[in-house]
Every structure is written in structure tokens, then in C-alpha cells.
Amino acid sequence: MESIGVLMPIPMNGYLEQELDKRFNLLRLWKAPEKSGFISTHKNSIRAVVGNSKAGADAQLIEALPKLEIVSSFSVGLDKIDLAKCKEKGIRVTNTPDVLTDDVADLAIGLMLAVLRKLCESDRYVRGGKWKKGDFRLTSKFTGKSVGIIGLGRIGMATAKRAEAFNCPISYYSRTQKSEVNYKYYPSVVELASNCQILVVACALTEETRHIVNREVIDALGPKGVLINVGRGPHVDEPELVSALVEGRLGAAGLDVYEHEPEVPEKLFKLENVVLLPHVGSATVETRQAMADLVIGNLEAQFLNKPLLTPVV
Ligand code: 8YV
């Protein structure tokens, strides 16, 4: 398999690169001085693309690679891959579900605790030497707060289970009601937001879910409500979110993702009612290794004509 060209558009993970190097001809696009020249030089040997949440395979790249057989994504989210184009051309697509579910759900709970108990602000308080001048202000209780979840897939379910352990009543919005759970279902996101204290975004990014959290939803969540986003930045209308936080129309937010990563609206830096993370939901050593193993396992399966481990297309 050493002669099979595997294109990686941007750096992702040292272990993944090392293991791909051992098996394939890994082509690092970000190191090429001129990208389109690099692609046309290697287009007849590239049979796979490894994408992630930042760079995948758009229609232009797919069209430029006549021998492309598979896009194996180092992510569960597939919003950077033109799935319709892949289907049309018979190109297989795989992702990394399940292995990252626990980490992302853990982080969602971590953000709820960090926001409500002001963990980051109180850490800054101690480091800044302010404790000697007086105790830190009171915070808000997490246990028992009602949690509304947008998208009850793997990550949404894992978040719900964890929140249940904190005695939080759970409700959710999804396209269809799930018969296997007893959580309260709301057929609209506005209704869900009106009836919970913490709203969590945990669905996939598609054309239907882009800006699923808009001004109406933010206003329904209200000045005491907390928004947690562990999905994708474009799920939320970011200018609306920023103005609601600045004007006090939304209580607080815990964000792991942003509309134009790695750009984060500077107005948020001044606010104490937000906790800002740099898209680290799946970023543990253990999980990133498991994700890399899945990417490689899918590529090996493809080139050995075996069933793919986690096929999407
Ligand atoms: C990223 C993610 O892929 O799985 C996803 O959809 O967003 C993350 O796991 C991670 O940043 C790796 O690039």
C-alpha cells in the first residue's frame, strides 16, 4: 500500500501522520509551496483524502482528484465534506463516531459547571491575588437545573445521561421524537429554549441546522438562561449571541466552537459570563489516538476490499 497517495490538507495529529506514513504515501498539502500545482502533480496517485472539522473535501478538490476512492475524516462531523458530490461519484466517506462521544459529553458538562460555578473566573481571582481582599462572589447551582438538548444523537444522549446524574430534568428537540427515551420532547427549538435553563447544542451541522439558535431562540432562553455549544459554530447566529450576552438578554454561554474558527468575537473576551474553549471536545490523547486508528482502519479496509469500519457514504 506504500504507493497509494493519501492527501492530508492540514496538519491534524502527530500519531495519525506517523501511522499513515508507515503504510501509505502521505502527501502533506500544507507543506506544498503551491497547492494546485501539488495536486495536479500527484492527482493520479491520490486515492484517499483525510479530512477533519477544519478541512475536508469540497467539490473542487473532489473534481481535481480523478482516482479518489475514499474520504476518511478525522472527525465525527462531516460538514466539511461535499457528501452529495461523493455519492454522485461513488466515493466512500467515513468518520469517527462513538470513540469521541464520552469526551465531548464530558466537556459539555464541564462547560455547564464552569459557567454556572464560575470556575475560570474564580481561578483568575486566586491567581490575581484578589482572595486576600475578600471572598469570591456567589455563583449558581448546577444540580437540578433543567437541561434542554438540541439533537439527541450519540453526544446528545451521553450528555443527557451525565446531566441526569446531577438530577437535571432533561428535554430535547430533534427532527423526530424518540420512542426509546422518556425525556420531554419539544417539536420546536423555541419551545425547548422557553422550557429549560441550560440549552445544549449537540446536533450535526447541516443546511437545516445552520443558525438553529437564532435571536428568537436566544430570547426564549432569556436573561437567566445558559447556552452551551459543543456542536459547530454555525449552529448559532454568532452576532446575535454576542449582542444578547453584551446586553444581558442571555444569561451566560459556554462555547467550544465558533462561526469562523479560530476567530472568536473580541467582544466576548471582556465578558465574565462566558467560558471560551478552543474546539477541544475530542482533544484527549486517548480519543485522538482512537480516532486516528479508525481513520487508518477505514483506509486499510478500503484498499484491501474489506467492509469499511464506519461508513457514511
Ligand atoms: C475535530 C470534531 O474533528 O469530530 C468532530 O466533528 O469537531 C473534532 O473531533 C477535531 O478538531 C479534529 O480535527
Automatic annotation (TrEMBL):
Limits of the D-isomer specific 2-hydroxyacid dehydrogenase NAD-binding domain: 109-281
Organism field: Rubroshorea leprosula
Name this polypeptide is given: Hydroxyphenylpyruvate reductase
UniProt record, GO biological process: oxidative photosynthetic carbon pathway
Cited Gene3D superfamilies: NAD(P)-binding Rossmann-like Domain
Pfam families from the UniProt entry: 2-Hacid_dh, 2-Hacid_dh_C
Cellular component GO terms held in the UniProt record: cytosol
UniProt family annotation: Belongs to the D-isomer specific 2-hydroxyacid dehydrogenase family. GyaR subfamily.
Domain spans labelled D-isomer specific 2-hydroxyacid dehydrogenase catalytic: 28-312
Highest rank taxon of the organism: Eukaryota
Coiled-coil ranges from the UniProt annotation: none
CDD domains per UniProt: HPPR
Record InterPro entries: D-isomer_2-hydroxyacid_DH, D-isomer_2_OHA_DH_cat_dom, D-isomer_DH_CS1, D-isomer_DH_NAD-bd, NAD(P)-bd_dom_sf
UniProt GO MF annotations: glyoxylate reductase (NADPH) activity; hydroxypyruvate reductase [NAD(P)H] activity; NAD binding
Keywords for this protein: Glycolate pathway, NAD, NADP, Oxidoreductase, Photorespiration
